[in-house]
């Protein structure tokens, strides 16, 4: 424990993480020990202070302006060239525009390797807080500001140690990952291509070998309103919807050895207006995490089940559905993991190699107790450095 503290004090004191290689990569024994973050001056560690500053700026999807401005100026202060890519630019909200950030230290914007993550978070906002000396809490501390901070520090350290040249790697931080990936999809318009793209999302410091696919849709039942005492005068949309949803719950969805079972979530149901009125409309919003095959196959299963249930019912599929996404995981020294959440990976077109890696666990992301261990940020920097070096070698 003393040993670990000494290391931490050392790099905090000199303001660089260059000597943290003594902390082994992986879930090292070091992580069982508190780093004693609460007792030290975070301001003298670029990693922990950047992470803190990012978490403390509320950036719920659609409100990424402030964090974008902060990150842009932070990167410029570190001699990066920074480009904004506006998403849905509206003259009327000029002071609150959302933009992706592309940053590079060299003379070329087109680099062989790209490190990328997202700067938006889900609601609500929780500020940064250190608990029990070693746990960092706050919205985005895991998803995905832990990735943003550690990707930046990894590049800084690789440049400082001359392990890479400035034209090798660039950074891309996008908006709107949590709301369907409109930020990353816009990147396809930049006309750029990379050999390797390293995506940052919480993977518990393991290398993700794939993630489930996703299909999101609404089921809308159309009825006819009337007095509930005379049900034959109308047709209840609620009474149409309920058996249709039961049919969906009974569906046999595809499964695979790698991803397990597909899962269905009826996330919201709205229908009718009062107990004594026959419901005119009813709507359910549903998401399916797909474990095998194509999203079109699952669409067919859904349509078949719904059609059997009633004729006065329609299904609207949201755009951007996809089957399971296999991810490269051929770098030695990492454990591998599959995850059940979606990422921006399918939103970025191109033939690049792709990796998915980051600190923290999705099991607390999006919750009111989102947090990670401080030591995981240190390990993530090492992990990204390793991935970048492996990518440049191949
Ligand atoms: C940025 O570049 C200037 C001029 O080369 C240099 O003096 C300064 O130290 C650099 N700043 C950082 C943070 O690297
Ligand atoms: C998948 O579903 C089947 C049937 O419901 C169940 O027996 C099995 O344990 C599930 N597998 C996983 C990995 O959850």
Automatic annotation (TrEMBL):
UniProt xrefs under InterPro entries: ArgE/DapE_CS (IPR001261), Bact_exopeptidase_dim_dom (IPR036264), Peptidase_M20 (IPR002933), Peptidase_M20_dimer (IPR011650), Peptidase_M20A (IPR050072)
UniProt GO MF annotations: hydrolase activity; metal ion binding
Keyword field contains Zinc: yes
Pfam short name (any one): M20_dimer
Domain Peptidase M20 dimerisation: 210-311
Required cofactor names: Zn(2+)
Record keywords, A-Z: Hydrolase, Metal-binding, Signal, Zinc
Signal peptide stretch: 1-18
Presence of keyword Protease: no
Alphabetized Gene3D superfamilies for the sequence: 3.30.70.360, Zn peptidases (3.40.630.10)
Record PANTHER family: ACETYLORNITHINE DEACETYLASE, PEPTIDASE M20 DIMERISATION DOMAIN-CONTAINING PROTEIN
Family classification: Belongs to the peptidase M20A family.
Descriptive protein name: Peptidase M20 dimerisation domain-containing protein
Species in which this protein is naturally found: Lepraria neglecta
């Amino acid at each position: 424990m003393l040993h670990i503290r000494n290391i931490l004090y050392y790099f905090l004191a000199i303001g660089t993480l260059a000597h943290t290689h003594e902390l082994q990569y992986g879930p090292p024994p070091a992580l069982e020990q508190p780093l004693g973050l609460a007792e030290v001056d975070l301001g003298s560690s670029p990693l922990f202070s950047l992470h803190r500053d990012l978490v403390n700026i509320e950036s719920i999807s659609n409100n990424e302006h402030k964090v974008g401005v902060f990150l842009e100026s932070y990167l410029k202060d570190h001699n990066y060239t920074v480009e904004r890519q506006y998403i849905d630019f509206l003259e009327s909200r000029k002071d609150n525009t959302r933009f992706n950030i592309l940053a590079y230290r060299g003379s070329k914007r087109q680099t062989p390797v790209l490190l990328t993550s997202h700067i938006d978070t889900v609601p609500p906002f929780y500020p940064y807080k250190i608990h029990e000396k070693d746990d960092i809490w706050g919205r985005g501390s895991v998803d995905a500001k832990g990735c943003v901070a550690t990707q930046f520090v990894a590049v800084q350290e690789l440049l400082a140690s001359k392990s890479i040249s400035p034209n090798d790697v660039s950074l891309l931080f996008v908006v709107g990952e949590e709301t369907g990936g409109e930020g990353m999809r816009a990147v396809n318009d930049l006309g750029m291509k990379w050999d390797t793209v390293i995506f940052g999302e919480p993977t518990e410091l393991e290398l993700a070998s794939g993630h489930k696919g996703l299909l999101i849709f609404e089921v809308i039942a159309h009825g006819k309103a009337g007095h509930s005492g005379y049900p034959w005068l109308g047709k209840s949309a609620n009474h149409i919807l309920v058996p249709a949803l039961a049919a969906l719950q009974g569906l046999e969805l595809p499964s695979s050895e790698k991803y397990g079972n597909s899962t269905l979530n009826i996330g919201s149901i709205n229908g009718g207006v009062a107990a004594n009125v026959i419901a005119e409309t009813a709507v359910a919003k549903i998401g399916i995490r797909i474990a095998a095959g194509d999203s079109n196959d699952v669409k067919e299963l859904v349509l078949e089940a719904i059609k059997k249930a009633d004729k006065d019912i329609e299904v609207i599929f949201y755009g951007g559905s996809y089957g399971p996404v296999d991810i490269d995981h051929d770098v030695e020294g990492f454990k591998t993991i599959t995850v059940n959440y979606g990422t921006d990976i399918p939103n970025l077109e191109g033939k690049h190699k792709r990796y998915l890696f980051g600190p923290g666990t999705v099991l607390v992301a999006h919750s009111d107790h989102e947090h990670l261990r401080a030591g995981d940020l240190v390990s993530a920097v090492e992990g990204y450095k390793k991935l970048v070096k492996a990518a440049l070698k191949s």
